[in-house]
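assembly run, all chains below
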Amino acid sequence: MDELLSKSNLHYRDLARAIAEKFVRPVAAELDRTGEYPWTVIKALQEQNLMGIWIPKDYGGAGAGLLDLCLMCEEISRACGGIGCTYVVNALGSFPIILGGTEEQKKKYLPEIASGNKLIAFALSEKDAGSDAGSLRTTAEKAGDEYVLNGDKKWTTNGAAASLYTAFASVNRERGTRGVTGFIVERETPGFEVGKREDLMGIRCVPVNETHFKNCRIPASQLLGGAEGRGFKHAMMTLDVARPFVAAQGLGIAQGALDLALEYTKQRQQFGQSIASFQGIQFMLADMATQVEAARHLVYTVARAVDAGVKDFSKLSAMCKVFATDTAMKVATDAVQLFGGYGFCRDYPIEKFMRDAKITQIYEGTNQIQRMVIGRALIKETASV
Ligand code: CAA
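ok done. output:
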């Protein structure tokens, strides 16, 4: 339904679709096997000035809206969920600076991200602080005009590819979430290390690493927003903006799986006819297509609401993340079913969609956490009723 999209939306969607077909789809299976990073795709995106479209124009970006970014992520993920992730995780890493950075920090770091010369990752989670992000143990101690960081981060997505990180540490663990403080970390900083790479089920071209701080001295000028104790809010505000683009990643994976299932069931012959001619298969395809369309409308509506300046969108953001990523898993699993035994083989592209879909229900807050955010919001909204 192109009629519902603006000129800008269509511009980004079409550019992303062209890049997905020319650069992403041809390498998706190979990178899934080798785990290599999609540098050719990043370069193609960079050449078209698409790497930092979400960054405001004042800081070298295109000032594009959240819906534009969702469309980009959807189209890339339609060809490869992993490559969709390598692109969009830069937005996750840079939103803490956009939303909470000082003017100097924005001027210093955002243009390099917008140009694609530097990739940025988001380091919040730890081994024992996943869903309970506020219980993180990495510490930051003030020493003159520096902070000394110690601790270990887990699940730093794009960890080994990035050269900048927005990382969260506590300046006072007794203060709980109010002690959490954000830092902008440059990769070359002594005491910062990119560690073990996880061996993942899906999105295998994405380096997801442990990252470590060992007496790592960060200049106070890189304290996010120039103030201690605001990190948890900056991280939560970032996740509110980021969840719609993970939803868009799920949407793209679901659409990509549906595309392949349709193509396959139309050409696969059994009992002397294409299996798509059987009503049982048509019903499955119809349900898959309806679920994808419903997810699309929810994701686009939430992104449009954010672009229109709606405040307090945590609930909406969580809703679209839950719905679109559960849809991705359901549709990709059904698509594998439609491929029968071939769906279970790596010779065919469909099983990768099922593996890639799974992470979208887990990262950027598990879908159980999203339901918690939605439930809490419902109770709060109706507290005075
Ligand atoms: N925006 C602004 N502030 C917020 C907020 C939001 N959305 N949500 C909470 N806060 C504030 C609260 O107002 C509160 O502030 P005060 O101290 O002033 O009262 C403070 O933060 C603490 O809030 P809660 O008591 O609600 O916090 P909580 O400890 O109960 O946690 C949670 C809430 C929603 C469960 C949160 O911990 C959460 O989202 N957990 C999931 C973490 C997550 O998504 N991790 C993913 C990491 S990134 C990743 O996986 C992806 C990747 O690398 C690609």
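The chain has a mean pLDDT of 98.

The chain has three domains: 2-115, 120-229, 233-382.

not gonna interpret more than that til we talk
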